[in-house]
Amino acid sequence: MTGEAAVTGLPGERPRSDALVVFGFTGDLARKQIFPALYRMVKSGEMTVPVVGVSTSSLGPDEVHARVRQSLEDAGKIDDSAAFDRLLGLLSYVSGDYKNPTTFDALRVALGGAKRPAHYLAIPPSLFKTVIRSLGDSGLAKDARVIVEKPFGRDLASAIELGAVAQSIFPDSSIFRIDHYLGKEAIMNLLYFRFANSFLEPIWNRDHVASVQVTLAESFGIGSRGKFYESAGALRDVIQNHLFQIVALLAMEPPASQGFAAVQGQKSAVLHAMRPLQADDVVRGQYTGYRQEKNVAADSDVETFCAVRLHIDSWRWADVPFYLRSGKLLPATAAEVVVQLKAPPHALFDDSLPGHGHANYVRFKLQPISAVALAARIKLPGKKFLGDQRELFLCEQELSEDSTYERLLSDAMAGDSALFLTQDSVEAAWRVVEGVLVDHHSSLPYAPGTWGPKEADAVLTSNCSWHNPTAKEDGASGQ
Predict the structure, then answer these.
(1) Distance, CA of 360 to CA of 311 (rounded, Å)
(2) CA 20 to 30 Å from 173, out of 1, 198, 354, 413?
(3) Which residues does the annotation mark as catalytic?
């Protein structure tokens, strides 16, 4: 394994995109993520090609520029006026109906001499197939790439249909399925930490691991996303994609190389080995007041909290429970993984008996900072053999996630698929949740600011409790 190609998945096999088209130019995703990412790319010299915005809104050049300026000011400050001017110089805009061929005729004119555009679909999922087909019919898919933001369908059947439409227009190597969580530095560190440190491998299996917990908590509610959340819920929005991808990184076998095919193959193998969820494996919750949110049904059963007990039927992970949990209006905005190790096999010391503290664990703090903690027991001073659990806490002080979309956009335009999802992995993840999307227990109420309904404890096995992450930046465990 040598050379730069081994590090990022062979980006040099195809030429870089020579233009970026942003469908949904006036939407929230463009305003909050894409414009700031483009500005940073221009500052660094990464973005030098035309950027064409497409939306249904009729906007003049001054209005387009004002939107971009407002986006950057909301995200911080414009600290490089020359870079900002260069970004505006790259921008052009096309307005029109996505179903109307004349919109794509205008897009072809706006692209000018560009031969290898990348089309970013920052639009509602209901429009994905429409735009992809229109790109094919207009000839704008030739030698182009398409970047699709999750969700990739809302169940297995729709995911298969979307994949079939995309693959009928674009070769699979030109389809980039973004789960932005995979671009976060802390998530990438999971893969690195696992396979760059030899001391983990002997204990990273069913013989030494008692359980694995993954929590992604948000202290805020759904805000203005009521219409979207009514069609999704926490299981679809977070568990099936973000948390399953984290589990795949934690549970995968060592890949033969750093290349895209090797890493994605091992991740897909984990997703295929996940046992399909049953109704009793899932506890759904809904925060009090959700039904009064805008665009939410008065009798909605949509879950804003979801806790899952998952099993991976593989040699390495047989009988090791994976507990996944995510929700809105929880006590903190934080994400953590706790790999709980088994207690020593012989109770040599009194405080190693059941009920005397926790066994060793490995803790990955993913949000709001990136950190790794290793917990071990040490003896307290005195004649008695009594100890306390302490953490070795390794913290990455860089808190910013600004580089996530910058990284993903740059990789997609370079043809580097390492941080993107394959159609196979998308379908495998949907198969795990397919049954409980329909056959599930009713959502249970929980008060805002709590860790979900108390019934979430039911997914845990005996002698196990939830690890509640905090937003603290020190080594406090929260256990």
Answers:
(1) 21
(2) 1
(3) 242
